[in-house]
Specification:
Two copies of one chain form a homodimer. By secondary structure, chain A is α/β, with parallel strands linked by helices. The first copy, chain A, has a single domain (8-301), classed as Aldolase class I (TIM Barrel), CATH 3.20.20. Chain A is built from twelve helices and ten strands. The first copy, chain A, has an eight-stranded parallel β-barrel with strand order 1-2-3-4-5-8-9-10, surrounded by eight helices. Chain A has a two-stranded antiparallel ribbon with strand order 6-7. In chain A, helix 7 (156-168) runs parallel beside helix 8 and helix 10 runs antiparallel to helix 11 (270-283). Chain A is globular, with a radius of gyration of 18 Å.
Chain lengths: 302, 302
Amino acid sequence: MKLPSKVKIVDVGPRDGLQNEKGQVPAEIKIGLVHRLQDAGLKEIEVTSFVSPKWVPQMADNAEVMAGIQRRPDVRYSVLVPNMKGFEAAVASRPDEIVVFGAASEAFSQKNINCSIAESIERFAPVAEAALAKGIAVRGAISTAVGCPYEGDVAPERVELVARLMKQIGVQHVGVADTIGVGTPKKVQAAMEAALKHYDIDHVSGHFHDTYGQALGNTLACLEMGVYHYDTSSAGLGGCPYAKGATGNVATEDVVYMLHGMGIETGIDLDKLIDAGKYISDFLQRKPNSRASTAILNKRAG
Amino acid sequence: MKLPSKVKIVDVGPRDGLQNEKGQVPAEIKIGLVHRLQDAGLKEIEVTSFVSPKWVPQMADNAEVMAGIQRRPDVRYSVLVPNMKGFEAAVASRPDEIVVFGAASEAFSQKNINCSIAESIERFAPVAEAALAKGIAVRGAISTAVGCPYEGDVAPERVELVARLMKQIGVQHVGVADTIGVGTPKKVQAAMEAALKHYDIDHVSGHFHDTYGQALGNTLACLEMGVYHYDTSSAGLGGCPYAKGATGNVATEDVVYMLHGMGIETGIDLDKLIDAGKYISDFLQRKPNSRASTAILNKRAG
């Protein structure tokens, strides 16, 4: 196995995770989660989104959350923006990075954001340009990169197309996202290979959901390709809107447990990470959706 | 990736799984589970154990269960035996294979079966001899092959020792078992390498627990070594006696989902397998402990 010696984790729990939770989480709790994640050693946190509260009421407190974080110079705070209006609102909150997105499935693009893939990229072109002009980094998320709830299997060529379009508008880094968690190691590698036709190994991420329990296998498969950026979600926050009651984003704890067990550095303190996940799970009145966390919390309880 | 094109799954749910469940499961339900597993295409099922009911009351109906199965000629029915007395009781029920066991951790051997590793192997020597004389296959399980609840990390040399001892007494096939689920891909590969010093690739299995969510990554790591036998448990039956409320054996459904997604044949019908897991989970009045099953059952429910 050729493996990276270090991995960079982006915790997307506060945004991608909490966005899919039913209950409204107060800004102070979100801020508390971000603080605990940075205390645990996370160096990049996807904090919130600047999508219209009509569509995503969970993130209506975006500006308040961003303003409330005691920032650290070595941590990158990113926010998701859907369009120019969202970007303008986001700028005031001084993100280090914005996240734009495009689906690899045409049907998903239509159902999710009511436009074609090509139109969605066109919409993001001025956003990326404006961000870069202001010195804000631009990351792109390629959703439904392996499978789509409407179309089924998604061909790697579709991922390549979106990666090419994102490259053209100046997106600096792309994440290959298995939005519905149906991917398995070889399929995920094929999707990642497609992205690597337009981005080098330093500028691609794996973003896996554990809906079918496949996320760690998929992560290992990408580690073996040398991929060293992964998006994960503290306590496995976020369900799957396409399968009620199912798991969404892979838990940061499970990924970090695997990486440390393999001798791969993350800079993350697993015990503090588990505390962060416990904090938000306690607020949500449920157990962390992470097997490593469950096992370690049980062990602590003795 | 060099990967096997076919994988053989041993479903250990009726024995290793149900043995760790709190409630007593009636023989007819166990038989119903075995029938559903073979209908789903499983070709080897670990049915029960012939351990004293004083120690494992859950398996006191061993003879009744074995007698009640409508056997198929192409399915192998195995039972676990702890000693000569257990073997003699098992013989009457005509198993195709017996399973003997030894820990790679001295402390675990002492606490679990109250004797040293060497003593446990000595105890199994006449059992293996008698089984082979009767034409019954003999499989060995090397428990705590990666980590031990009492000793912590277990060195691969310990696994090699147990594999050598098992080879000496005629055990034909060994399983490398991560009994407490603490293993990660490189550690599991090292343990498997150690077993492969005494057994060829056709005679080793991976037996992984998902306590820390690592089982599929570990399975993938072993697939990449060419290992093509895995023990798994329908519906993830069986908790972890060393971490209350934690996951035990990896769910057959999750492993099969991954294998099929990778184009690896198992001969198993995933939908029927999910039905089998649902059957026993319904009896236990809980949801299957399998993410693939959860996602697919949710999808069926629409």
